[in-house]
Amino acid sequence: MDGLDLQRLITALFMPLPLGLLLAGAGLILLAVSRWRRTAWLLAVGGLVVLFLAALPEVARTLMAGLERPYPPRPAVECPRAEAIVLLGGAMQPLLAGETRGRLHRGSDRAWEAAQLWHAGCAPWVVVSAGGLIEPPVVAGESAALAALLRDLGVPATALIVEADSRNTQGNAAFTRALLAPLGLRRVLLVTSAWHLRRAVALFARAGFEVLPVGADYRGFRACRGLECWVPNARALEETGLVVKEYLGYGVQVGWRG
User: Fold this and answer.
1) Fewer CB within 10 Å: N-end or C-end of the chain?
2) Domain range list for the chain
3) Minimal CA–CA distance to 209: which of 51, 116, 86, 30?
4) How far is the C-alpha of 187 from the C-alpha of 96, rounded, in Å?
5) What is the pLDDT along the chain (258 residues), one digit of tens a residue?
């Protein structure tokens, strides 16, 4: 386990699900083995409250909207002109042994957005910045799968630049800079999930880019109705976790080091 893996593990422990379970579990253990009953009840109830609030659709939607609001969606044809389009990973799974094509997941409209920008003439290059460890059962990283998808969406291979060494957003910025600086490319349209843009824009700007943010994978616009807004579900719990991860990531990678 290297430093980045350790950082991810620590971050994972602060996600609502493991944090809530850890607090509740600690409380139950203290109830069974100690006399600190008041503290034990506070921990147990606190853990359940964390889980309940994090799993509420209205809480998740409100938190997501707070991250996405500065980056409203806009048609690709209205894009400002740039020197390159930078597409960050998080849209597909890496290729596993036995698979013939990459698997799309919920953030895959990032790739669609990047292709639309290229077809609209917003920039002549599309940089795919997505790395990760290549270890069994993974046989090819996300960057290769994304490049293949972009070609299927009509972006020619001659317009693609692939960055396959990064493992987080800091790496995206640093390795992309290393590729584009010799080409004199600095003004970029940065495409990622809207809730991820605050951190990504800050890191790419610090790497020396003039950043034009482009959002995708919007989640804060989804509306719920009546009581369903206050019934916990797994999707809301996941989205609240993404928000927590973004704020932690911003604090570690931008705020506390900036």
Assistant:
1) N
2) 3-68+241-255, 78-216
3) 86
4) 35
5) 666 778 788 888 899 999 999 999 999 999 988 888 899 999 999 999 999 999 999 999 999 999 999 999 999 999 999 999 999 998 888 878 877 777 888 889 999 999 999 999 999 999 999 987 777 787 778 898 899 999 999 999 999 999 999 989 999 999 999 999 999 999 999 999 999 999 999 999 999 999 999 999 999 877 778 899 999 999 999 999 999 999 999 998 898 654
* CATH of span 78-216: 3.40.50.620
